[in-house]
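Internal ticket #5521
Category: modeling
Description: The requester needs a full-assembly model to guide mutagenesis choices. All entity lines are attached below as received. Residue total reported by intake: 1139.
Assigned to: D.W.
Attached entities:
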Amino acid sequence: MSEEKTHIVPYKTQVIVLFVLLILTGITVAVTRLEFGALNTLIAMLVAGIKATIVLAWYMHLKYEKRLLPMLVAGVVILFLLVLFVTFFDYSYR
Amino acid sequence: MESPTKPISYLDYKGEYKGILGWIFSTDHKRVGLLYLYTMLAFFSVGAILGLLMKIQLIAPGYTIMGPQTYNSLFTLHGIIMIFIIVVPGLPAVFGNFFLPIMIGAKDVAFPRINLLSWWLYAVGILIVLTSQFMGDGPPDTGWTFYAPYSFQTATNVLPAVFGAFVMGFSSILTGINFVVTIHRMRAPGMTWFKMPLFPWTLYGTAWIQILATPVIGITLLLIIAERTLGIGFFDPALGGDPILYQHLFWIYSHPAVYIMILPAMGVISEIIPVFSKKTIFGYKAIVLSTMAIAFVGYFVWGHHMFTSGMSGRALFAFSFLTFLVAIPSAIKVFNWVSTMHKGSLDLQTPFYWAVSFLFVFMIGGLTGLVLGSLATNVHLHDTHFVVAHFHFIVFGGTGFAFMGAVHYWFPKMFGRMYDANWANLGWGIFFIGFLALYLPMFYLGIMGMPRRYYDYLPEFHGGNIFSSLGAIVLIAGLMIIFINLVRSARHGTKISEKNPWGGTTLEWQVDTPPTLENFEEIPTITGKPYDYN
Amino acid sequence: MIEHRDDQGAKLGMWLFIFTELLLFGMLFVVYAVYRSMHPEAFRIAGEELDVTLGTINTVILLISSMTAAMSITAIQKGNKKLCLQLLGITILIAVIFLVNKYFEWGAKFEYGFYPGSPELHELGYGTILFFGLYFFMTGVHALHIIIGIGLFIYVALQVKKDKIHQTDHVWLENTGLYWHLVDLIWIFLFPLFYLIH
Amino acid sequence: MYSGASTFVEGVDNAFVFILGISFFFLIGITAVIILFLYRYNKKKHPKATQIEGNNTLEVIWTIIPLILVMGMFYYGYVGWIPMKRPPDQGVEITANARMWNFSFRYDNGRITDKLYVPKDTAIILHLNAVDVLHSLYIPAFRVKEDMVPGLPDNKMWFEATKTGTYSLFCTEYCGLQHSYMYSEVVVMEPDEFWAWYADTTALDVEVPEGANLVLMGRQIVESKGCIACHSYDGTIVIGPSFKGKFGETITVTTEGQERQIVYDAEYVKRSIYDPDYDITQGFRAGQMFSYEGEISEREIDLIVEFLKSLNE
Ligand code: HEA
Ligand code: HEA
Ligand code: CUA
Ligand SMILES: [Cu+2]
């Protein structure tokens, strides 16, 4: 049943992805030195989110999969965020 | 691969191993299903006897047959067995394993070896839980909810119980993964999503909850273990922890888990009703959609177990609102089932008795769930016997009745023998009466204010408790008749080889009785809808 | 029993398993978020106790190992067994270095008396206790995953060597790779949440 | 129902009646329809089924109508509950303290009781405290219940009783061995009666009248404070060591990780009550007994000591 052709990711792409990831790591570390108040955490999480998306898309081949998997992954992330959100219905208003 | 001679049934098949080894090392989904069935029947008997002992204790105030420590560990073990060992794995592991591949036209599940591993993990988990009963410090006495901080202050053996539940969680996850992949990848050619029978559909919804909710209990139990062994302080108020956060985590799993219990039961009912009405199911799509809606919304109502826990008012508001929303899909299903019977040609056989009585007790259980979901009334009823009655009605009444229905419905196919219908019906009748007598008084006790997990109670609650305890004894009689009849019939019942004794339309009724090792000689191609009686 | 091969199915199964892992760690992040929202100051001060340099080094090498793991799949797909084995070797090596770093990091914390249940921690108040409790628990569970990952990679490398995993049959390698990237993903979030609080 | 014992009863019971009414309607209606079908469409009477695939209008109808009803239920529940969350500014403030396995109530003037005494028609604000594990304070007649969570700041509940009398008060959160005996009562009095009771500060600390039976007084304290939940008089071990025949003996305890011998004297008893985890008696665990500092006065401890001595015979 393995009729589906798997996509081969070239080495070059993988090196480029690593570079992007390293640069993003540099950015988060650098940003901590600056003062943005509450924004700092937001930026850190945003950068981490971008990094995670990159890993998911290239290293984990989501970019090359059929639509089902990316949708499932998105669904799980949304589910998690909703749980977090609902939990804070309690903690934000105690 | 096909042998020229007539293929042999899965029961007679001789593999690498003989005797019992041929079962506990078999990766055949049908044998794994039966392994689960036998394990469960054994532990259901244990759990049920514990329930009976509790009821005898409660027949009069004060010391009757046991002291408070025994009582507390009894309801803990009763809860753990019934929830983690019986109803959560219950229908998916037994009938899902046995019939899911057949119903979608596959030869096995996607990962047969992982399937066997699931059973092994399950068995090991049970053993670990059982060790907690016999080790030095005495059986755990926390209730099946393991609420912090009591669960790490008590001196009893909480660790093995928690760890056993953790291991069983893994088993549940693996079953879930197996089923999702099986349904995605192995449906017979032509079986599009909306041509799939309803039992596989509910298993699909259930499997997703198993995958997405069970890790939550996994990590929660790990945190309890870390808390007890290392004293980290996650939930210990003396170290700054928040006990309410534990309750959040626990119920983030355990509420979806109640839908793990009920969804497959609804699937079974959706199979039985059309077959015995000789009529196509009413509103197939509505039932499918409501299944998925329950699975999704059910994830966000966990807070209704915590209305008096000290949560913020706004959270209470949100959780109560969502709780009411999640009741709607259940209502839709009930209406569709009843409509299926309309203008049918009803064949009153044992499985149908169970299905109809399921409808009745499920309605009572569900509607009292609404009473509990409402803020004002929940404050009064929380942690009283009203809650105990609610969940016995819906867990035992709902899932349990569906389980009984499923056993009788699929019995001829699984064993190639027929049970004695008269005894089965008699058992059902006594069971049903005992059930109502046992649990209806608990609603009254709860409204009067009798708290749950009470070893002893005030004299004013005596009347209801006598009634309820006598009900338990009637129930036991019914259950014994049912069990004995089934066990006897599985070994000596009349042999049948007819493929389709009930006139069902789904694929399991097109294969041999009992099914052959590979289920299908040739994978069928599906053209029509399920439940097509034209 | 019935031999049947379905690579897509196996991969789907692995992804489902990854979902369970995501939610498992996800709940720890919920616990983290709740306690941090309760004790923001204590978390910030406690976060400064952690060694950013060590953390950064670990982040960088883990990212590199993710790349080598991904490359090993390309190598096997191209039929380059030797390169594949070398890349797997590097991945395992990096994973071990990661653990060694962790060991020193934890060791240093223990020396300062920062470990669960220590009297020093108790003096510093609730926020600090919770921060270090979470730090040890979360990085500990993560390290456990690294150890499992190492085991998986060793197994896979042996299979490659024996030609059990080859150009046309490499789901095992791919799934191990997926697992490894998951471990990386989690670290991507752990790193800013513990080392870079501001 | 509608007992009228507190101001909440009406709102809660309205929600009850509304939800139960609709539930009975559906339960009876649907059951009747099922029984009718079982009879009418029985195989014998109706041998050939008529196939019906479904009906979208019906599906919509039976989604919308229950939705509306359910929102009605939600509304009644919400309206009945909202006053519980809004304690008034003015009222009698009482601190309720829970521990394994008894309640104690402290009034503003320092009076401590094991039953809850409240005036009628006055808002009572209870500040909830738990020493060890979760407990929950439940007064069925008033329709109120709230968990008592250790360490949860600003945890409170309130009610206003509208009838004099004595009502049950339960602990409804499972808290271990004697959970079902964690029971007390609420005594609702006419306001003037209550204030007279309240002003009676002679009960603040124990008075030891001339010639009183010290042993008996000590025994009463031990019993009213709930010590017997864990300590027996007869040598059986419940949760803590028995009191029998200990006083004056030399016992082995663990203090800050060090084992040592110590004499069981008045000083030791006092320390065991105020700081129980300091000396851990051999064979027992720390963290079971919690300090009674502020709940048991030194004078009371003297009486307890007298009682313990008497157990040596
Ligand atoms: C199989 C398991 C199962 C299922 C399916 C349910 C279903 C529901 N449950 Fe239940 N519940 C439990 C198992 C289950 N429960 C358990 C085990 C506990 C106790 C745990 C513990 O503390 O130990 C519990 C506790 C529990 C509580 C907490 C009580 C407390 O401790 O204070 C609440 C509160 O909201 C609740 C609500 C509901 C609701 C609203 C539904 C709904 O999904 C019900 C929907 C069904 C119907 C509504 C009936 C059918 C419809 C009709 C007849 C048509 C007419 C309908 C309308 C007009 C709407 N449940
Ligand atoms: C599937 C779920 C399930 C089932 C089926 C049952 C079945 C029963 N339960 Fe259970 N119960 C729970 C799940 C379940 N329970 C849970 C989750 C709790 C909460 C625990 C907690 O608070 O932590 C609970 C709590 C609970 C309490 C509340 C304790 C308290 O709060 O004080 C009580 C009290 O009466 C009780 C009684 C019973 C009884 C009498 C039965 C009976 O109906 C059982 C019927 C069976 C028999 C009477 C025995 C007959 C069988 C045999 C003799 C075997 C013969 C075998 C062969 C021939 C093979 N249960
Ligand atoms: Cu205190 Cu139950
Ligand atoms: Cu629930």
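Resolution: model delivered.
Comment from assignee: DSSP finds three helices and no strands in chain A.
Ticket closed.
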